[in-house]
Write a structure and sequence with these properties.
By secondary structure, this protein is of the alpha/beta class. It has 14 helices and 19 strands. The protein folds into two domains: about 5-180, Flavin prenyltransferase-like (Rossmann fold), CATH 3.40.50; about 190-400, CoaB-like (Rossmann fold). The strands form five sheets. An eight-stranded mixed sheet has the order 12-11-8-13-16-17-18-19, sandwiched between helices. It binds cytidine-5'-monophosphate. Cytidine-5'-monophosphate binds near residues 279, 312, 315, 330 and 332.
């Protein structure tokens, strides 16, 4: 998934966010990377090299004239061994020096001498970030093909609030994974639905489907990692928005339907149409027919309210019926006759691919097992964490799109 098996040089420059670089080191390792830390003098004033040395089990380099590397060319040795260089935190000063191609210290030198991709995670106070000089430098870095990850906005160490905070380590790992993954969906627009829908009975009650949204959110992440432009229409779930995903929150099936078609309608001569629609949401098939806008009172005795239901629109089928539909992928959770029901659904909804959850008790769990049904073929994805399955599924879909 981008990071696993990679050798990453993590450059730590001078900023208070350097303390987050220790956690980032751990998270990158957890994602399967080998991490080599190189610090600037200023970075080493914020967090000691010993911390990173202990975490990585590798010597930490600061000094350009370090004699531990045999040929005296640490910058060449270190960048040659790396699959990627990530500077986190990247100070305003360090980005200025990168933008100018300076080689004033070991880290700047190895960035200049690199053959691998380079990403920076800016961290600085709001005024420094907004300064036109910094913005010019950021633009220069982008023009030079350097990935700029973040910054985020929020509370800052200087007591201010604003743009300039380094992304949190978990978001950074996600962004780095996406940056390093193969871009199978580059230039594609993807629309997804995820989570359950909630159909209100009255202001305090409603019916819903069991769905954590984990699978849909994992697929949205995998699409971003594959280079797609991703919009996620999400029902009520308590999951953070994946990095670089545009999220539209909805409650009911009708709102989800309207949001999906509204999004598809944005295509124009200037805006590329969506290439792919993945319906992962567990949409409620019915909604209470008469919504009461005040709470239904419990009466004395045993009288219970009668509920009447109305049919919700089938979002997936309605998208597949559009004049120029995107490639449509449906999901199905069946408790029995998975294959027969799945093939039937494929035909009924008029879609080319349906992904069936094998075993219907995966709600909220991190693992899943999938069966991809297409007209004339079947592919089984063995039990694995949802994040991993999402990447495999996206690879499979990308092959069909190309
Ligand atoms: O018809 P069924 O609910 O079994 O089909 C499941 C698939 O259809 C899923 O992809 C789900 O997101 C989608 N669906 C939908 N709108 C509905 C019901 C299901 O988009 N009203």
């Amino acid at each position: 998934m981008g990071i696993s098996g990679k050798r990453i040089v993590l450059g730590v420059t001078g900023g208070v966010a350097a303390y987050k670089a220790a956690v980032l080191t751990r998270e990158l390792q957890r994602a399967g990377a080998r991490v080599q830390v190189v610090m600037t003098e200023a970075g080493a004033r914020f967090v000691g090299p010993a911390t990173f040395q202990a975490l990585t089990g590798e010597p930490v380099f600061v000094d350009q004239w370090d004699t531990r590397i045999a040929n005296g060319m640490a910058h060449i040795e270190l960048s040659r061994a790396a699959d990627a260089i990530v500077i986190a935190p990247a100070s305003a000063d360090f980005m200025a020096s990168l933008a100018q191609g300076r080689a004033g210290d070991l880290l700047a030198t190895l960035c200049l001498a690199r053959e691998c991709p380079l990403a920076v995670a800016p961290a600085m106070n709001r005024q420094m970030w907004e300064n036109p000089a910094t913005q010019r430098n950021v633009q220069q870095l982008r023009d030079d093909g350097i990935e700029v990850i973040g910054p985020d906005s929020g509370d800052q160490a200087c007591g201010e609030t604003g743009m300039g905070r380094m992304l949190e380590p978990d978001a950074l790992v996600e962004a780095i994974g996406a940056w390093l993954a193969p871009k199978r969906l580059a230039g594609r627009r993807v629309l997804l639905t995820a989570g359950p829908t909630f159909e209100p009975i009255d202001p305090v009650r409603g019916i819903t489907n069991r769905s954590s949204g984990k699978m849909g959110f994992a697929i949205a992440r995998a699409c971003v990692a594959a280079g797609a432009d991703v919009t996620l229409v999400a029902g009520p779930v308590s999951l953070p928005t994946p990095w670089a995903v545009r999220r539209i929150n909805v409650q009911t099936a009708q709102q989800m339907h309207d949001a999906v078609h509204g999004e598809l309608d944005t295509a124009s001569a200037a805006v590329r149409a969506h290439d792919l629609f993945i319906a992962v949401a567990a949409v409620a098939d019915w909604r209470p027919a008469n919504y009461r806008d005040s709470k239904i009172k419990k009466t004395d005795g045993n009288a219970v309210p009668e509920l009447a239901f109305a049919q919700n629109p089938d979002i997936l089928a309605s998208v597949a019926r559009r004049a120029h539909p995107p490639y449509c992928v449906g999901f199905a959770a069946e408790s029995e006759s998975l294959e027969a029901h799945g093939l039937d659904k494929l035909a009924r909804k008029g879609i080319p691919m349906l992904v069936a959850n094998i075993g219907h008790e995966t709600f909220g769990l991190d693992d899943n097992e999938l069966l991809i049904l297409e007209h004339g073929s079947q592919t089984r994805l063995a039990r694995a964490p949802k994040a991993l399955l999402a990447h495999e599924l996206v690879r499979h879909i990308a092959e069909r799109l190309s």
